[in-house]
Design goal:
Layout: H1 2-32, H2 38-52, H3 54-64, H4 70-93, H5 95-102, H6 106-125, H7 145-150, H8 153-165, H9 170-189, H10 191-232
Amino acid sequence: MPHLELKVLQSIQGVMLSKGFLFVVRIDSFFRGFTLNWTDILSAAATLFLVLDAPGNIPVFNAILSKLDEKHRTRVIAREMIIALVILVAFLFAGNLILSFLGLTQSSLNIAGGVLLFIISLRMIFPGRQQYGDEETEDPFIVPIAVPLTAGPSTIAILLFLGSSQPERIWEWCIALVIAWLGSTILLVLSPRLIDVIGERGSRALERLIGMILVILAVQMLLNGIAEFIQSL
């Protein structure tokens, strides 16, 4: 009997090892065809980080959450940023569906996104009257922190463009979005300490610098859209 039990145990271990080997082989074959272009991912993440405009939102966030203590402020920022991420991911994955439903073309999306990004970047360079921060609520929900300060129209337009122009790389754009979102979230959580270091004037100067970079990106998007439209004629 002991020899029989030993043989049964050995056979069970052999089956488990073979199953594990097959599982590892399948996982390895899956990831072997799943390659990531980290150059494009980091480039898209940098663009999305600039469009999310966390440095420019620092004074607005602090004005809206000025009545909250540090722990409550951190919880509110984390909650609102998670909501914004869910909204942005939804637009990223629904890019083709939205464009096909509305009958839009890539050239029209490029031109519209370029114009929209150009207007928003000009507002960053030449800020006018503060649009947010006068709300009486002490604990804002979704509006205005998640939408439109974080998940704004320019960010949504870029994600629609990425998701519809190269849908086969949707997971790369998703990784880029998460990287940009994570950097923005960390920056906004640490914003009170950052303002103590650079001051509000330094924050405004940083916002204007980002706006100048976005103007160049907006013009390039606009030119690409016009070129695609001319070629389609």
